[in-house]
Design brief:
The complex is a heterodimer of chains A (about 130) and B (about 60). Chain A is mostly helical and about 130 residues long. Chain A is about 60% helix and about 0% strand. In chain A, helix 2 runs antiparallel to helix 3. The longest helix of chain A has about 30 residues. Chain A starts with 10 loop residues before the first helix and ends in a 21-residue tail after the last helix. Classes of the chains: A mainly alpha (about 130), B mainly alpha (about 60). At the A-B interface, helix 2 and helix 3 of A face helix 1 and helix 2 of B.
Chain lengths: ~130, ~60
């Protein structure tokens, strides 16, 4: 959360404080990992409905016997769950990178900009390995 | 971190979901319309992968 500035703070001082706060967050692996934890907690909330979707799917396909007469859920939520997983993976990977920045990357962050390695949602590289 | 063939497949599908399937009805181009398998064991596979990645990057278990 942004702290309120002093009333007599100049725009330059305000900018400097913003950059300090930005680089503190960006270079903190724990900050990235904390977001990954939150995304993981949100995934867990969706899992019972996804399980229920598959249960109904198996019953409709005749693979298992129908246990109850409850209608299947309107939404499977499978893709939303996977998307959250992707964002959690991204945050874990970026947390790791944030803990080991190159000199160039650190300089960029300290200038108030996100280095390329911490930008975007890419998970796999062109060789099929983890980015 | 070394990825198994299965993990690579899982991450490729997750990449697809992040890019559009999880939030839009269509991709940026018709080229993106391809078969997309979903497996009922994916929740477990995703959990296992996240645990492995957490250990690799040194993130504490939440």
């Amino acid at each position: 959360m942004e702290e309120p500035g002093r009333p007599d703070e100049t725009p330059e001082e305000r900018d400097k404080a913003k950059i300090a706060s930005f680089s503190q967050y960006v270079l903190s692996p724990e900050a990235w990992f904390r977001i990954a934890d939150e995304l993981g907690a949100a995934m867990e909330l969706l899992e019972p409905q996804i399980e229920r979707f598959w249960e109904c799917f198996r019953a409709d396909a005749g693979v298992v016997e129908k246990k109850d007469s409850e209608p299947p859920p309107n939404h499977s939520l499978i893709n939303v769950h996977m998307m959250l997983a992707g964002f959690a993976i991204e945050n874990l990977r970026k947390g790791h990178l944030a803990g080991h920045p190159t000199w160039k990357e650190r300089k960029k962050v300290e200038a108030g900009e996100l280095p390329k390695c911490l930008d975007g949602h890419k998970i796999l590289n062109s060789q099929g390995g983890l980015v | 971190m070394t990825l198994s063939e299965f993990e690579r497949d899982l991450l490729a599908r997750i990449t697809d979901v992040i890019s559009w399937r999880g939030r839009y009805p269509a991709p940026l181009s018709h080229d993106g319309i391809v078969p997309f398998p979903q497996w009922d064991g994916d929740i477990g596979r995703i959990k296992t992968f996240l645990q492995k990645l957490r250990a690799h990057v040194g993130a504490k278990e939440s």
